[in-house]
Amino acid sequence: MPGFPEGWGGWHTPVLPCLVLGCGAGWWSSKAHVFVLLSLIIYRWPQTPANLLPQNQSVSECPSKSDFFRSVANKILFILDLDIKTSGTGCVKIQKIECDNCKIETEKGTSVLQSIKSHKIDIRTNGGKVIGLGTLYGNTDICATEKGSVNIEKLQGTTINISTEDGLLKTKYLYAESASLSSESGDIMLGSVHGNTSLQTKGGSITVDSSDGSLKASTYHGTIDVYVSQLRKVDLKSQKGSITVKVPESLKAYLELSGRKVDVSSEIQLKETQSVSKDDHVALSGHMNQRDEKDKWIKADTQNGKVCLKSQSWIQSVKLRSS
Ligand SMILES: *[C@@H]1O[C@H](CO)[C@@H](O)[C@H](O)[C@H]1NC(C)=O
Ligand SMILES: *[C@@H]1O[C@H](CO)[C@@H](O)[C@H](O)[C@H]1NC(C)=O
């Protein structure tokens, strides 16, 4: 069978009618039409840990129908292609599913996804909320137009693209080789970000509690507030808003900061600083805790706002995050 990852074993070949999806995954539709397409459903008993198996049931036993309905709720469903489309306020709720392609499209309805693993997760909404609980694992593309918002606990994939128009875009943990997140007027609020990340808004503000990779953030009206825990390249740009960069006191970096005003808090010692003031604009560059490293840098540039560089310990950033 094509497309099955190695080492999955323990299959019970197609025994599930669509109805059973309602146990592992469900949907409801009060004033809405729902269209679901499943190309193939295979129910998989998890092999490990063994204690996930129901008592007195071995992997090779085929459960009776009622047992099956009762026990499927705690198992993982494997589906090749899942394609759900709702209209009006029709909502979608999916949990504990593994699939090759997972496609969901709603109008105003909420999509709730919990613990999904897929090669490709594709979610579209025109005004609905997208809520992710647990980990969403896979290359992800989420597009929320109008007031549609995105709030995801943990996202992990090679490439991740998310866009909103007016709605908030929020993620607590983001792990991606390449992530591209954008919003027109919604805020982007990220917790802990790993990998190469690019963030863009027009009016919304951008907040990153902790970044340890390469980060590029740009906004027109919004403010930017970022804690950089470990550094590659950090490039922050705003036209009208202010930029706050927080770093650990021991960070080794080359810095270029420019804006209407540039404030460097006193705990941070910059060496070989150069400062140029021209027409209400200040540009300051300098080295922090090193002299010649130039590949690890932070650039923060705002036309009309102010740039602040502050020190913050990792512990403080964790405390702030959990408070
Ligand atoms: C994300 O966007 C980039 C650039 O548009 C594209 O190459 C990539 O395939 C997209 N990734 C996903 C998972 O849709
Ligand atoms: C970031 O991108 C570079 C090249 O574009 C890649 O070599 C690197 O592995 C990426 N970083 C992470 C953490 O995936």
From TrEMBL:
<feature type="domain" description="DUF4097">
    <location>
        <begin position="145"/>
        <end position="279"/>
    </location>
</feature>
<dbReference type="InterPro" id="IPR025164">
    <property type="entry name" value="Toastrack_DUF4097"/>
</dbReference>
<protein>
    <submittedName>
        <fullName>Family with sequence similarity 185 member A</fullName>
    </submittedName>
</protein>
<dbReference type="Pfam" id="PF13349">
    <property type="entry name" value="DUF4097"/>
</dbReference>
